[in-house]
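Discussion board: Methods & Data

I've been asked by a reviewer to show the raw model output for two of the constructs in my manuscript, not just the figures. I'm not sure how much to include, so I'm pasting the format here to get opinions. Each protein appears as its amino acid sequence followed by a line of discrete structure tokens. Is this the kind of thing reviewers expect to see in a supplement, or should I convert it first? Here is construct A:
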Amino acid sequence: MSPALTPEARTALLPPLLAAGWVKEPNRDAITKHLKFKNFSQAWAAMSRIALLAEAMDHHPEWANVYNRLDITLTTHSAKGLSQLDITLAQKIDQIAAEMGAAVTA
């Protein structure tokens, strides 16, 4: 189990993610990002890459896909909030999205 982030870790680790388009969820300790890809195939390919990564980490996102859009929410249920697992997965998702030319949407 990965423990919840300390206040010091939040101060250090969250600002770069927020600057990259992740948004704090208003009613829970989670972050969300909305991505738009060129088409459905690209969105699905990104989901496949993220799914393999998440499975290897044993840390799974909450997500939804509609056509070329992918909405991803990260939180660690066992920690009842954000943990280092979420930070690491968010960073890796950002790398995949950048490699695939995804745009961040609201």
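Construct B, same format:
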Amino acid sequence: MPTLTKRDLIVDITNKLNHLELTQTLVTEIIDQFMDSVTERLCTGEKVVIRNFGVFQATEVRAKVGRNPRDPGKDIPIPVCAVVKFKAGKELKAKVAQSLPIIREKRS
């Protein structure tokens, strides 16, 4: 299944907004600034809400004990860590739900 890379995203946005005469360099800078802003806010414990798309939130995952499948008798302590969770918005969920036939077709 194909993957959308950052480069693909830059080219796609530049092409879709060609009437604004944006350069790929400018679009790259905008995307980089967007990602930096989201990262900074998440690192300070804030939620990032993008209406009709979703919510990003940093949460704490508690410490736990893991097992090595090659040596199941040995416990491996896994420390507390912070992870990013994403909850899709209603419009995004609805659009993805409509694409089920396309997703199934590509998986085949």
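Answer (T.O., handling editor elsewhere):
This is acceptable in a supplement if you add a one-line summary per construct. For B, something like: The longest strand covers residues 54-61.
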